[in-house]
Design a protein that fits this description.
The complex is a heterodimer of chains A (about 190) and B (about 350). Chain A is an all-alpha fold and about 190 residues long. In chain A, about 65% of the residues lie in helices and about 0% in strands. Chain A is built from nine helices and no strands. In chain A, helix 2 runs antiparallel to helix 7 and helix 6 crosses helix 9. Chain A starts with 7 loop residues before the first helix and ends in a 14-residue tail after the last helix. The chains are: A mainly alpha (about 190), B alpha+beta (about 350).
Chain lengths: ~190, ~350
Amino acid sequence: MAPRPMSENDLVAAAAAGDEQAFAALVRAHSDAVFGHALRFFGDRQAAEDATQEVFIKVFRTIATFDGRARFSTWLFRVTRNVCLDMVRAGRRTPQPVDPLTLEPLSAADFADDVVASRAVEQAMGALAPEDREALGAVTLFGLSYADAATTLGVPVGTVKSRVFRARRTLTGIINGWDGGEGHGLPARH
Amino acid sequence: MDCLRVTETLSALRDGEIVSAEDIGAAHVHCATCAGCATFAATLKRLDTLPTPHAPEALVERIIARAATEARVLREMAAENAAALAPAAPAIAGAPVAEAPRRRLLPSRVGGSWYFRPASLAAAAVVLLAVGVTAVTLMRPGAATVPDESASLTGPADGDTFGAMADSSAPEASLSAERASSDATAAAPDYVSFDGSVYILDGPAVDASSLTTVGVVATSLGEDEAPVERHAYLSARDREALLVKLPDGTYLRFSPVVRTHGQDRFVLQTGAAITAFGMWPTLPDGFIVPAGPDGSPSFQLFGHDDMGVAIYSLTTGRITTGFAIAPGTAPDDPAAGNPGWTWWAPAD
């Protein structure tokens, strides 16, 4: 019988006890989420790589203090968010915002192409309000529930829900070339 | 159901949030007749299928390699430290010691500003504290059998610090011992205590509006007189501060002395009230002052804070109620200069 794969809790416990393979498995499992968050935060690959490395080294040094009360991904999101913010506060990196007016809507053909569409969506992420992008990332990259994201971000659950929705609405608007402004991407009431 | 509610419902549905069957049905009915909402739904569905950013494989391997290297160096250092500890054992028992380090950086406060000055040395204390500094580096946080990084292994958070950290262990341990010895002679910063927490003087309060009285602080401040009870306030506009009212009606602003662990803030505590500037905080009542440099019998090594300083938990192995810091921290540490163990409680 093949050995049962370790659960995430098992991996965390093993990594905390000094198991380097377990830590490597955690890095492989979560590096995309951390890198994705950092890339969207900074809009710059090099900054995202620096942040990702810093996040995991910090996790390596402090994982023994992770008490398991929250999910590991929730804790990781918190560390990632703080590392990115600290890099900005320290003046080491500056987020590169994207002017939504410079973004072109996607044609149906482009939207059907994974590579082209993905690149366009990631570019459009830079045009989102930071708090909206952060909430969207918490939920879609790290898999946090609205409740967990709310706790981590220190806002009510309803605020997370609104931010995620607003992010999606804006992305949809950019992709489809809907009118900008307050109602960006939002179908009109009728 | 209008377009806004429909799109909100569709968004929450994508995230696995609980949505009533009635709302789902209504949203689908709405989308069948509303091109805008149908496009929104289709776009959401398509977004879910698109690849998200992928961390470069080289980056992932670099991180894993760096962690492995750090773990290996820590093990090697622990072994070296263990070997170095053996002949030093008599010093713990108070055996005479011949010579001590020569120069140190002692943070002292004169005229309200920090400066560094050379100081005389207390040889026995140096060695005793050096042993302490070294001893606490032996264990990995949370794992009794795995070695851990020493204070010298935790450099600044920015950049690739590992190489420099691994190379600087011996000089740093020596410097720590020097700091520890002379810090025993230093006066404390301008502290006051309130409700068991320690606050440090920032200066005159700029904004003393929207105040709430929270009690009194007994302190002589920097005056050569008996402690005086002074009203203390919290400010709605400056929630971090503790404001202390002076006889002339002005206020001094104090902020809590904090350190962070896992981004959580911990505030320096004191058992005995600090009634004058220059007094050091003590361990809270009920704590037994550690007899050994490893924190025993009161504490055990737990891990490191965000600045890489070793922290000690109660023997329960948890830090939910706080943690202790050994004397001998670096000059830029919030516990710098304190000749004794300090206790730090969660800020919230």
